[in-house]
Specification:
about 230 residues; 2 domains; DNA-binding; four-stranded antiparallel beta sheet; five-stranded parallel beta sheet; Rossmann fold; homodimer; Arc Repressor Mutant, subunit A; about 40% helix; elongated; alpha/beta; 12 strands
Chain lengths: ~230, ~230
DNA sequence: AGAGTTTGTTACGCTTTTGTGACAATAAGG
DNA sequence: CCTTATTGTCACAAAAGCGTAACAAACTCT
């Protein structure tokens, strides 16, 4: 995996250093700034693949700077992950509104951070995941965002697509509802486990309409399994 | 589904007791200490699967102790979840550097705690034992949650699966009904011992339907033994 | 703003699972 | 061979787990 360049904008020394360290360990190259002005200079020098941006910054705030970036065509495609100490929903919504690609609430584990960075890079097309997952006559194309069975295309909702994507990349293994929530919805989501059942039901219905009956299997007392077998 | 051993280090009595109680209910075995020194002794005695560590401790602080642990190869792989009171945000960040695996801010819900513990154990790979247990032509796959004999799949209930899992991982040894209840059902479950007999019967029936007669053997006066021999 | 989708939650009914008591069968020991 | 302790088997009721529909909230897209 080639190295990516990540711009860290964070005014607190301890946190900034920690971030750089974590990134380094995960084989990301990083450049760091303590405020928006400094960051802007680095940006002019070299366009990074991703920006880790603190919400609160001296001078121009992180959000404000991000908003400006997203308006300029040169920068608007750089993915931004916002960092904030407060886990308030309001901030999150505002952050995502201005076009941030993800949002991390401090404190976060290094592993989670890295995972999110990868996810964002993947989404923005910088990391090429496997574009097509093929299982039997099922094909899920992440680039085209299409799910086909044979040559027929299935109409699935975003959640169904993600669920299907997870299943197809983790076939034959049983997952509990909790695990599915973690993996498909995200770790810090607060959703009833029974909701999974409903989504499974919807997925099954779509699959049934195309003649596939037993792809999603119930393992009573444990969870669900996606498998071509049996 | 063997129980995990969790070391709780917390100086406030009420919280520590609450933790132990919650863990117990979730079928985790726990040992508790009130300070780092005491915890170290317990650690020397037996390596736990996870440590729940209060940030603030009398004497050596939780962070300091954690840092030391992470430097010693014997201990460095034990996952640590730090517990902190609200309003120590900054400190928590610093805790990341020492390699804690997660954080919990007091007060937290038992549900959340258990969820995080599971997540950490899952990440660190401890929750996944050996995926496949193979004994002769019997295969039990915990990931796929399948039990096969030759290439035929056996339809077993959750309890039967757990029982079979225990038997296959503890073949050739005799277990009393009490032991089986403890190991397969859980320590704090109160069930009649004769119930075991019924489950054994059900298991035998399924095995018989697939031509295996004497896998589960009665040792009169003691209990049952699972064995391929005889 | 409004129509149509998507998504999460809840409630209800059905099926499977599970624990238990009753009784039959079996083993042990004099 | 008879008595007693132990185990095997069955049937049943309670509980748990799951599928499904219906509803409401949130989100999209024009």
């Amino acid at each position: 995996m080639s190295s990516f360049n990540i711009l860290v904008v964070e005014d607190e020394d301890a946190i900034r250093e920690m971030l750089v360290m974590v990134l380094d360990q995960a084989n990301f190259a990083s450049i760091a700034a303590t405020d928006a002005e400094e960051a802007q200079k680095l940006l002019d020098d070299k366009i990074p693949d991703l920006i880790l941006l603190d919400w609160m910054l001296p001078g121009i705030s992180g959000v404000e700077w991000a908003r400006r970036l997203k308006k300029e065509s040169v920068y608007k495609d750089i993915p931004i992950i916002l960092l904030t100490a407060r886990g308030e929903e309001e901030d999150k919504i505002r952050g995502l509104e201005i076009g941030a690609d993800d949002y991390m609430t401090k404190p976060f584990s290094p592993k989670e951070l890295i995972a999110r960075i990868r996810a964002v890079l993947r989404r923005s097309g910088k990391i090429q995941g496997q574009a097509q997952i093929i299982l039997g006559d099922l094909t899920l194309d992440t680039e085209q965002h299409r799910l086909t069975i044979g040559n027929k295309q299935l109409e699935v909702s975003p959640t169904e697509f993600r669920l299907m994507h997870f299943f197809m990349t983790h076939a034959d293994k049983v997952y509990t509802r909790t695990q599915l929530l973690d993996q498909v919805w995200g770790r810090n989501v607060y959703i009833e486990e029974r909701t999974i059942d409903v989504h499974i039901r919807r997925l099954r219905k779509i699959l049934e309409e195309h003649g596939r009956e037993d792809l999603v299997q119930t393992v009573r007392g444990f969870g669900y399994r996606f498998s071509l077998a049996e």
